[in-house]
Amino acid sequence: RGDGAGLAERGGKMASTAAGKQRIPKVAKVKNKAPAEVQITAEQLLREAKERELELLPPPPQQKITDVEELNDYKLRKRKTFEDNIRKNRTVISNWIKYAQWEESLKEIQRARSIYERALDVDYRNVTLWLKYAEMEMKNRQVNHARNIWDRAITTLPRVNQFWYKYTYMEEMLGNVAGSRQVFERWMEWQPEEQAWHSYINFELRYKEVDRARTIYERYILFTLLVIVHPDVKNWIKYARFEEKHSYFAHARKVYERAVEFFGEEHMDEHLYVAFAKFEENQKEFERVRVIYKYALDRIPKQEAQNLFKNYTIFEKKFGDRRGIEDIIVSKRRFQYEEEVKANPHNYDAWFDYLRLVESDTDAETVREVYERAIANVPPIQEKRHWKRYIYLWINYALYEELEAKASKRTRQVYQACIELIPHKKFTFAKIWLLYAQFEIRQKNLPLARRALGTSIGKCPKNKLFKGYIELELQLREFDRCRKLYEKFLEFAPENCTSWIKFAELETILGDIDRARAIYELAIGQPRLDMPEVLWKSYIDFEIEQEEYEKTRNLYRRLLQRTQHVKVWISFAQFELSAGREESLSRCRQIYEEANKAMRNCEEKEERVMLLESWRNFEEEFGTDTTKERIDKLMPEKIKKRRKLQAEDGSDAGWEEYYDYIFPEDTANQPNLKLLAMAKLWKKQQQESEAAEMDPDKDIDESQS
C-alpha cells in the first residue's frame, strides 16, 4: 500500500515536471494594424470562386460509338440518368418531356409513348404535356394515336381552346371535313368564347357552306341572348355583314332591325347605327339612312355620338341638300348646349345661346319648353348680383311671346309670374315693372299699366320707377298725375336735385312761374343734396330766363354766403356783364374787386390766379389803360420752390419742386419779395465780377475809355 502511494506521488511529480517543461507558443505580433489598401468582400470571394469553378471544368470528351455494345451501354447510362432525375423530382414535367423527346430521337416511339403516359399519371392537367404527346404522334404519322390523344385531352380539359384548335386543324389537314365539323360541334356544346364560333363559321365558309354558316350565326346570337349578360354589338354587325357579303340583303336588314330591337333605348350603341346606316347607303336607301341617323341622334347622349355625328355630316354632304346640312349643324349645336346646361344649370349665358338657336329653327312649343327649363333654374342666393343675368331670361321669354308667338295672354302671365318670383323686400328690378307697364299700354290696357307701376312704387320705390311712371303720364298729358308723382318722388328722395329741376321745368312749361320758383326755393332749402351746384345753376338760369335780374343777384349773394368758389364769382361777374345796362361794366368790375378781396385769404392760390386772369381778360376787352395797368400790377409772380416729402411710415422720401404764386397785394409777403429782389441783385453782381476776372484786357480797355 505504501509503495503504491509513493509511486503515485512520484508519478504526480513527474507529471508536474513535464507540464512545467512544456512551452507555450508565442503569438506573432502584428506590427502594421492599418487596413489594407484593397479590401476584398465576401461577395467578391464567392463570385471569384464560382468563376474559377467554371474555368476549371474540363470540356466533356467527344465520344465515338463504334459498335452495338457501346451504343447499348450509352443508352443504358442515359436512361439511368433520366430515371434518376425523374426519381429525384417527379413533378418537374420538363424532365419527362426531355426523356420522351430523347427516346423519340432514337425512334423508340413505344418507349416515348410509355414515358408520356407515365407523365400524364403524374400531372394530367399540364397542357404542354398533352401538346407534346399529340405532336409526337402526328410527327410520326400515327393519326389514330393522335386522335385518341386529342379525344382524351378535350375530354379531360374541355376549356383549353388550344386542344380544340389543334384537333380541328389536324382533321381539316387530313381532309376529314366531316370529322372536323363533328369536333366543332362537340366544342360548341361547351359554349366557348366568341373566337371559337367565328372559327367554326370561317371553317364552313372555306367549304362554301353558307347555309351552315348562317345557322351557326343564329345559334351564336341565341347563345349571346341567353347566356351573355351584356352582349356585344360587333357580333350582330358581323352577322349582318356576312349576309350582305353573300348578297342576302333582306336577311342583313332583318339582322340589323333585330339588333336595334334587342338593344332598345337602354343600351344604344352608335357603332350599330353607323353600320346600319352605311348598309342602307350602299343599297341607295337614302331616306332610310336619314331616318336611322336622326333616330339615333335623338336618343344617344352627345358625348357618345361623336362618330355618329361625323358620319351623318358626311352623308348629308354627299347626298343631302342645303337644308339637311343646316339641320345637322343645328342639331350638333343643340347637343352641345344641352351638355353645357346639364353640366351647369345656372350658366345663363349658355341658356341664352341655346334659346337663340332654338328660336331660329324650331316651333313655338319647343321654344316654350326650353324657356320653362331655363327659368326653372332660380339663383340659390337672394342677392341682386346673382339675379342680373337670370332676369333677362324672363324678359326674353316675354318678348318672344309678344313679338314672335303673338300670345298676349301668355305674355301677361310671364310678366306676372316674374314679378311674383322676385323678392321685392330685398331688391327689385325696375326694368321688369316698366316693361310690363309698356306691354299693357301696347295692349291698350291703361288701368293695368297704372296699377302695375303704382304697385311697384308702393312695394319697392326706386328712382327709375318714378321717372318711368312720370314719363308715361307726361306722354299721356296727365299733368296733375305728374305733379302728384313728383311730390311722392321728392318725399322718397328729397336729395335728388335732378327731380327738383325736372319738377320745376314742368311747372315752367305749364306757365306756372310762381310754383316753379317755390319748388326751387324748397329745393335749395333741403339739408342734403346730391348735386347742389347743378340745382343753383338751374335756379339762376330760370330767373335769368324770366329776366328777374334783381332776384338773380339775390340768388348769387345767397349762394356766395354758402360758398366762395371762384367759379361762382366769375359766373356772377359774367351775369352782370351780360345784363345789358349802362352800369354793367362798373358792376362787373365791382364784383371782381369783391372777389379779389374775398379770396385774399384763400389757400388755393390757383383759384385766385384764375379769377385774376378772368378779370384781366375782361379789362383787355372793356377796360382802359389805367385799369389794364392796375390789373397787371395785381398779377402774381410764379416762382419755383422745394419742399420735403415724407413716406407713409414717416421716413424721408426726398424733395420735390413745385410752383408757388406771390401776389403783390399781400403785405405779409413784402419782406420776402424784398429779400428775393436783393438775392437776384447779388447774383447779378457775382456774375459780372466773374466775367471781369476771366477777361482782364477788356477791363483795362474799359478803364482807359
Automatic annotation (TrEMBL):
Annotated Pre-mRNA-splicing factor Syf1/CRNKL1-like C-terminal HAT-repeats domain residues: 94-380
GO biological process: spliceosomal complex assembly
InterPro entries attached to this UniProt entry: HAT, HAT_Syf1_CNRKL1_C, Syf1-like, TPR-like_helical_dom_sf
Ranges of Acidic residues composition bias in the record: 690-705
Coiled coil stretches, renumbered: 542-608
UniProt keyword Coiled coil present: yes
Keyword entries, A-Z: Coiled coil, mRNA processing, mRNA splicing, Nucleus, Phosphoprotein, Repeat, Spliceosome
Cellular component, GO annotation: nuclear speck; post-mRNA release spliceosomal complex; precatalytic spliceosome; Prp19 complex; U2-type catalytic step 2 spliceosome
Keyword Thylakoid among record annotations: no
Cellular location(s): Nucleus speckle
Stretches the record annotates as Disordered: 1-21, 685-705
Known function: Involved in pre-mRNA splicing process. As a component of the minor spliceosome, involved in the splicing of U12-type introns in pre-mRNAs.
Descriptive protein name: Crooked neck-like protein 1
Source organism per UniProt: Burhinus bistriatus
Gene: Crnkl1
